[in-house]
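Hey team,

Filing this mostly as a record. A colleague (T.K.) asked me to run one chain through the structure pipeline before their review meeting, and I want the input and output archived in the tracker in case anyone asks later how it was produced. No errors, nothing strange. Just documentation.

Input sequence:
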Amino acid sequence: MNPLPRPYSSRIFDGPERAPSRAMLYPVGFRPEDFSKPLIGIASTWSQVTPCNMHLDQLARAAEGGVSGAGGKAIIFNTITISDGISMGTEGMKYSLVSREVIADSIETVVACQGMDGLVALGGCDKNMPGCLIAIARLNRPAVFVYGGTILPGCLPGTNQRLDIVSVFEAVGAHARGRMRAEELAAVERCAIPGPGSCGGMYTANTMASAIEALGMSLPNSSAQNAVSPAKLEDARRAGEAVVNLLRLGLCPRDILTRKAFENAIAVVIALGGSTNAVLHLLAIAHAAGVRLTLDDFDRIGRRVPVLADLKPSGRFWMSDLVAIGGIRPLMKRLLEKGLLHGDCRTVTGRTLAEDLAGVPDYPADQEIIRPFDRPIKKDSHLVILRGNLAPEGAVAKITGKEGLRFEGRARVFNSEEQAMKAILGGRIRKGDVVVIRYEGPRGGPGMREMLGPTSAIMGQGLGAEVALITDGRFSGGTHGFVVGHISPEAYVGGPLALVRNGDRIVIDARQRTLTLLVPQKELAARRARWRPPRPRYRRGVLAKYAHTVSSAALGAITDLHLNP
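Output structure:
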């Protein structure tokens, strides 16, 4: 058998002059024979910062075992992670999207610096997952992504009421409205998160795990496994084997991350009713892979792909329920049979997507989680790309149809999330209001905070069908209701959102795909003449650097836009 390729590690290890490099690695467990094996990095986002990632050290060890069994030599290294669920609603949340870039930069730095021939990346929370994929796309060395898996639902003692983190956010709104006692809120708080794993609905983590599997960058069914399960440990071990096989095949990420693969990911995200964050992250991953992807692609694909999954936050079921009936593979096979996926795309198995799906059985006949095509949750996408005089570059609405397809109301304008949250919890938002939260975009925030606090408070107060919320910030995957985010250009750079005043009429029309401010053009011109940009909120540190380099949300809020031709 021919020796396994070592295109990068040979430059680090081979020859007498590289003796100092080899000497540095004997103390960490290398033996002489290891220097002739391909060097595989195991990029772990393990930490005790969040339950999403608290178990990833075990998965990293399993991946290391898979690499060793396949003839490679693995080195485990860590990068950071943050918790949206903990920082949500605070100034700290501004660092969330920033962390995606820090993670991507750090993985790229270690792998390239240390001459690693391949990579297994493990992620378990919203931003470390796309961060891993951005690094994988940039490096273009054989790689496999491993998802940490979904959490199981919590449960209130003595009841059958299942809970998750969104239950807690909505309980805060219910408590503020007087609909829940303090001791009930405390009980929900204590029981919502029972152990390791990512938030349990089709929120951002499970959405991105599914998208990455649809891209072909994780092993079959990697996205639909419980965090605490033998299946997840086996998934990590097999990923270690798979990356060595990819080296043997010479199959690199950009061979897999084609335009067709991104179209597959968009279709799967839509069918699952996934998070609006998938738009932002898929745009950024595509940029790193050198694939041209725009908001128009989401609109085009969204017109023909239905929402089929009855999953949280707007549906009834959790990801663990979907795991129990077979995960996303039967859904992908159904989409393929309907001509909604490209079956000729390669995956990290070395086969095509069609080959991977060939032997997948359908769901049990009596399941209610995944609807048939003739009875969808919504006949087209819930991720609706809106344009209009409030969003010339585009905005992303999350509209399942349960909220209605058109909303017209009066603007209630706030220049920060905190101002809006205070008004919502203070009972100052009324039926027919359109809550406008601005200066929270990628540059203005900076960091484009998620608005799970305000949207959950609105839902918890029973106003979900009667109040809309629009912002140049983002939404958590746990958000539901009549909401529009990613409004571009953002207010901070002079986008039309900066010109809205209290009492202005705003129309959100999902059928026409428009976001309109009903103010005469002459009046808007007069307001623009008087508008002055706000002072930067940060002048030093990572947030200041981010604000200086980040692009529009319509482009994925990437930070290297001007560095590429």
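Quick notes for T.K.: The chain has a mean pLDDT of 95. Residues 230-249 form the longest helix (20 residues).
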